[in-house]
Design brief:
The protein has helices spanning 2-15, 18-28, 31-34, 39-42, 70-78, 85-95, 110-118, 131-143, 181-184, 198-204, 221-226, 229-235, 249-256, 293-305; strands spanning 48-54, 60-66, 100-104, 123-127, 149-152, 155-156, 161-167, 189-196, 212-215, 238-242, 261-266, 271-274, 287-292. The chain is of the alpha/beta class. The protein has an 8-stranded mixed sheet. The protein has a 3-stranded mixed sheet with strand order 6-8-7. The relative contact order is 0.09.
Length: 317
């Protein structure tokens, strides 16, 4: 058993060597190989090097990866539908009517780079507080020459100052958080980072209007919204927000129930309106669309003029 584990660890390291990884990927994409090896096996192989992902509108996004970016690996093997398919599809549809985007919890930049490269006139602001992940994000922004994408290493919360960030041990952590529960959940590193509110950032940067906010901060999404109170009132931005079953629903209600926002679960079949925010039991479709009736009416008119629509599903909630 020990030998097998050592061999497995060795193979993982070898596969991530860029020149070998490129050769392996070329081999695996040959028709006769691809037809023999199950796709489920191939799609688990990490990718390394400069990776190009083609978007649904034929625009291209580039990532520089070292085999540790699982999101980019999924996008490479499965295409743009390979990661959060329903949410990215909705996100790209919303971008057509969006001039300013905030990506809070940007990780290595998938959403932010899609928004920025889709339209270089659009202003995109991405926030990623984990130092080692921020380095990947910065490298990817430079690779795409996305001058319209501004990155910031602050943790977005409900006050300005400093805050403790709890970081998990993964090479590219996807579940780090400022929530103290993460320390008890096994995060093996704690570091102090700058804390900032959306309202302060918008004021400091003279941002006249925020159209779309995407939030994924691992259980502290409600704090992000608390710190965006002025922006929510002024701009009524469309919000795409992660909801974790049994962890964040009540916290989000405590912030949004006194606003004009409506709640839509982004399901595999389409948008499901919910009176109560309820996370996905299977942790598969974890994102919600929060939108006011005013913005929804505007969006529907714009989509109709473009010959498009949103797919609403009627499910008892």
């Amino acid at each position: 058993m020990k030998i097998n584990l050592e061999v497995k660890t060795f193979l993982k390291k070898v596969i991530k060597i860029e020149i070998l990884n490129i050769g392996l990927r070329k081999l695996l994409k040959l028709n006769y190989i691809y037809s023999v090896i199950p796709k489920t096996v191939i799609e688990r192989i990490p990718v390394a090097g400069i990776i190009c992902i083609q978007l649904l509108n034929s625009k291209k996004v580039y990532f520089k990866v070292d085999g540790n970016d699982t999101i980019v690996s999924r996008l490479y093997w499965k295409g743009v539908d390979g990661f959060e398919k329903e949410t990215i599809s909705l996100f790209m549809k919303l971008l057509k009517f969006t001039d300013t985007v905030l990506d809070i919890g940007a990780n290595t930049g998938a959403y932010a780079l899609i928004a920025a490269t889709d339209n270089f006139q659009r202003k995109v602001y991405a926030f990623e507080p984990v130092p080692k992940v921020f380095k990947y994000l910065k490298r990817n922004v430079e690779l795409n020459k996305a001058d319209n994408l501004q990155i910031n290493s602050s943790a977005i919360t409900n006050y300005d100052g400093d805050i403790t960030l709890y970081i998990t041990s993964a090479a590219i952590p996807k579940t780090s958080s400022t929530a103290k529960e993460f320390k008890r959940a096994g995060a093996n590193e704690a570091t102090s980072v700058r804390a900032l509110t959306v309202d302060s950032f918008v004021t400091m940067n003279n941002i006249s209007k925020v159209d779309l906010i995407k939030i994924d901060t691992e259980t502290t999404e409600h704090l992000v919204l608390q710190g965006a109170n002025n922006v929510l009132q002024r701009d009524e931005p469309i919000i795409i927000c992660e909801v974790l079953k049994g962890k964040t629903e009540n916290l989000l209600h405590s912030v949004l129930d006194n606003t004009n926002y409506k709640y839509f679960w982004i399901s595999s079949e389409g948008l499901v309106e919910k009176k109560q925010i309820e996370g996905d039991l299977n942790y598969k479709n974890m994102n919600y669309l929060f939108i006011t009736q005013k913005r929804l009416d505007e969006l529907m008119k714009q989509l109709d003029a473009n010959g498009e629509h949103l797919n609403f599903i009627k499910i008892s909630s």
